[in-house]
Every structure is written in structure tokens, then in C-alpha cells.
Amino acid sequence: MVVAFAASISTASFAQDYRYGLYLSPMISWFGTDVENVSNKGARAGFGASITAERHLTDNWYFTSGVGFSAVSGRLVNSSPSFFRFPDHTSTIPGGEPVVYRLQYLSIPVGAKIKTTETGYLVYFAEFGLDPKVAISRRVDIPSINVEGKRASGEIKSLNAGFHLMGGAEYSIDGNASLVLGIGFESNVFDTTRDYETNESDRSTQKMIRFIFGINF
């Protein structure tokens, strides 16, 4: 996907309607659940990085896409004893004990951005879009059974999709280059964890707040 995106940038490099960006995003992530027995226990820190391209459409509207990486986590607690399936064995988790999920995603966000007319050196923007993604690392920490950083591909879905909302400002520094500062919210649409017949079915969706720092050129 990175190679394909790089090729698209190369192909479009002569088009004046395109701008590109590099972003780093400290993050706060947590889980949302839909059953009483399984609950989120606290937010956790993470980070993200992305390469973006935006194309001017009409008036103040732009099309955006790119490639993103995010390392996020979340802590879930089941009030009842539950089973957890590792690639080589199954363990029993006592009720009330946390499972910390540590996930890394590669995504291809697609969105629409609206910008204000430049005032002084500042342009304000808002963006919304969709985020198809694949989990490239799926690991867990389970302190109650002395598990740390163990692969958990059987318990965590490899494919997901989400949506994002963000807003911020660009500060022009030189010609077409500008510094970017913003904040965003992202939520997965589909369940992050797998449900088995021996455990209660639930829908646990990853949610994230991003603090965006970057440069457009």
C-alpha cells in the first residue's frame, strides 16, 4: 500500500492541484462496549503517523487520501470468568481481571476537507472521512496469568474500518508550505474482538483522539 501511494504521488507530482503532508499524532485510545459484563477500564496513550495527499475540487472543498499508521491500545475487563484463545493454547481469565490489547493498524483514509479563505497567514479546516484498515500487529498483556506482549491473532480481527472527524489550522511559512496543528476523533465501526460460543457476545469498538502536528507542502 505504501508503494502504491508513493507511485500515485509520483504520477501526480506535476499537478498543481495536489498538496502533500507529513503528520505525527500523539493519541489517546479506549474501547466502547455494548454489554454490561464487558467494560472499558481507562484510556491509554498511543501514537500515529501518516502521509497524506489532498486535491482541490471546487471552491473551498478538497479530496484527501493517504497512508496512515497507528499504534493504539485499550483495556477491557469482563466481570465474569472468560476464555482467551492464543495461537497455541486457551487460557481462563478470572472475572474482574483486565486484558490490555496492543494493536498496530495500517490504514488508507479517504475524506473530504473544507478550508476557510486565508486570513493573514492562517487557514482553518475541518475534515471528515472513512478509514479502511488492517491490523499488522495484535498482541495482549494479561497480568493475572503472567502474559505480556503475546500474539493474539485468534481473538482480534485483522480487518476493520472506521470514520474520522478533525479540525485545525494551517500556518503558512514559505510559499506552498504550511505548519498544521489540529485535533481529531476516530472510531472503528466494527467489533475489534472475536466472539466465541463460550463467551458472551459483545461489540468492542476502538475509539481514538488525535493531537495532530504536521507540515503541508
Describe the structure.
With 217 residues, the chain is mainly β. It has a single domain, classed as Beta Barrel (Porin), CATH 2.40.160.20. Helix content is 5%, strand content 65%. The chain contains one helix and 13 strands; from the N terminus they run αβββββββββββββ. Strands 1, 2, 3, 4, 7, 8, 9, 10, 11, 12 and 13 form an eleven-stranded antiparallel β-sheet that branches. The protein has a two-stranded antiparallel sheet with strand order 5-6. A hairpin with a 6-residue loop joins strand 8 and strand 9. The longest helix has 11 residues. The protein is elongated and about 60 Å long. The two termini are 22 Å apart. About 4% of the residues have low confidence.
List the helices and strands and how they pair.
Elements: H1 2-12, E1 18-32, E2 38-40, E3 44-58, E4 61-78, E5 82-85, E6 90-93, E7 98-107, E8 110-115, E9 122-142, E10 147-151, E11 159-174, E12 177-188, E13 205-216
Antiparallel strand pairs: 1-3, 1-13, 2-4, 3-4, 4-7, 4-8, 5-6, 7-9, 8-9, 9-10, 9-11, 11-12, 12-13
